[in-house]
Amino acid sequence: MDRKDFAGEVTSNVLEESEQLIIDFEKLRKIAQGQEAVVPVVVQDAESKEVLLIGYANHKALKHTLDNQVATFWSTSRNELWIKGLTSGDQLDIVDVFVNCEQNSLLYLVKMVGKGSCHTKHADGQTRLGCYYRRIVGDKLEFTNK
Fold this sequence. Notes:
This protein is α+β, with helices and mostly antiparallel strands. 15% of the residues lie in helices and 32% in strands. The chain has one domain: Roll (Ubiquitin-like (UB roll)), CATH 3.10.20. It has three helices and eight strands. The strands form three sheets. It has a four-stranded mixed sheet with strand order 2-1-6-5, with helices on one face. It has a two-stranded antiparallel ribbon with strand order 3-4. A two-stranded antiparallel sheet has the order 7-8.
């Protein structure tokens, strides 16, 4: 289901904490219309190889990442540099940075410093390890134990 099919209000709580499947198929179109040229960044835990999140980087974010060895992104919603962990303490230290064959996406291999990498939290208040904490089952979402 995409957001056009969803009848209720799409709040961050509905998106992040519900079992409703509401895919934002317009995300990349919105980013393309933004002020900054960006590429997607896959973030993977260097030890476990778990994919933690996907963000976006512009020139400034990539330079900051390489110069400071800490995962840095361009926030497409706030239009500002996003240094992961600056406010939460859940920093992602860079182990390695890879670029794909067409040089239009990046892979950050990271070591987590803190409790997790997602901005959402479990019901007990603990930071989630990564952003992929639900799986699609039929037309609903199911929370995983990660």
